[in-house]
Amino acid sequence: MSDHSDVVRGKVIAITGGARGIGFATASLLRGLGAKVAIGDVDEVMVKQSGSDIDVFASKLDVTDLASFTTFLDDVERELGPVDVLINNAGIMPVGLLADEPDAVTRRMLDINVYGVIIGTKLAAQRMIPRSAGHVINVASLAGETYTPGLATYCASKSAVLSFTDAVRLENRKTGVQFSAVLPSVVNTELTAGTTGIRGIKNAEPSDIANAIVGLIVKPRPKVRVTRLAGVLIGAQKYLPRIVGEELNRLFGGEHIFTDKVDNTARKAYEDRARGQA
């Protein structure tokens, strides 16, 4: 990590959805490496507590609101300096069959997971392009490269983030600004509370994703998949006949993880918050 700290030290790095989970783990790691870190989150009480815990700038941020996002970046730049890296991490994953999904939940998922990433990327690009420097890292998901029952809208949202990030990266390949996507597998955070994970494959930890994000900051590239094993397995599906790929998904338990094998009691607190009911 010494090489990483040499590159990361002093960089101004803003993270959305930074109060808990992957966002908080990433903020903690970057802070330890000497970066100037800011976290934003819609949960104002939690983000202020998390910011205090690791001594970083913290502010309420609603990624679905252009004015809120603009104010957040303005405040970060006033407090810490021009943003070198924006990590669009905020996202929600309500689970269940599409036919049972309330329209308000569908809209909320797309607003946070897609629109929030788009406006964050846009606002960052508008600040970074004139400086010919900067890096936007969008946290997508391996769900964006496959399809899983119980996650139809979530898969759609993360697939959108991947296509969007690639397109913006090509638009800006001569500007000096980098755009990358991180594709986590199932991660042990509240996002996956009450679910069992992929049969036979170890869940990733928030620290795994944080390490991958730091690696991208140090050596930018278009995308990174975490864990490598899950990334290889899902990537291999592209080269298999559809019927074979879907059978493998079934063998790994994909038909049940986010449908009838969910522990709804263990998941209730997260689902209520993700659905805007908490």
Structure at a glance:
The protein has 278 residues and is α/β, with parallel strands linked by helices.
Topology, pairings included?
Elements (H helix, E strand, L loop, with lengths): L1 H7 L3 E5 L4 H12 L3 E6 L2 H11 L2 E4 L5 H15 L4 E4 L14 H26 L5 E6 L12 H20 L5 E8 L21 H13 L4 E4 L1 H9 L5 H10 L12 H11 L4
Parallel strand pairs: 1-2, 1-4, 2-3, 4-5, 5-6, 6-7
Helix pairs in contact: 2-7, 4-5, 5-6
How many beta-strand elements?
7
Provide the spatial order of strands within the biggest beta sheet: 3-2-1-4-5-6-7
Q: Largest beta sheet, briefly?
A: 7 strands, parallel
What would you report as the Rg, rounded to the nearest angstrom?
Answer: 18 Å
Order of helices and strands: HEHEHEHEHEHEHEHHH
The tally of helices reads 10
Strand content: 5-15%
Helix/sheet category: alpha/beta
User: What is the CATH homology-level superfamily?
Assistant: NAD(P)-binding Rossmann-like Domain
Characterize the overall form: globular
Tell me, rounded to a whole number, the average pLDDT.
92
What is the name of the CATH architecture? Answer: 3-Layer(aba) Sandwich
Low-confidence stretches: none
Explain what you see:
- The chain has 278 residues and is of the alpha/beta class.
- The chain has a single domain, classed as Rossmann fold, CATH 3.40.50.720.
- The chain is built from 10 helices and 7 strands.
- It has a 7-stranded parallel β-sheet, with helices on both faces.
- Strand 4, helix 5 and strand 5 form a beta-alpha-beta unit.
- Helix 2 packs across helix 7, helix 4 packs parallel to helix 5 and helix 5 packs parallel to helix 6.
- The protein is globular and about 50 Å long.
- The protein starts with a helix and ends with a helix.
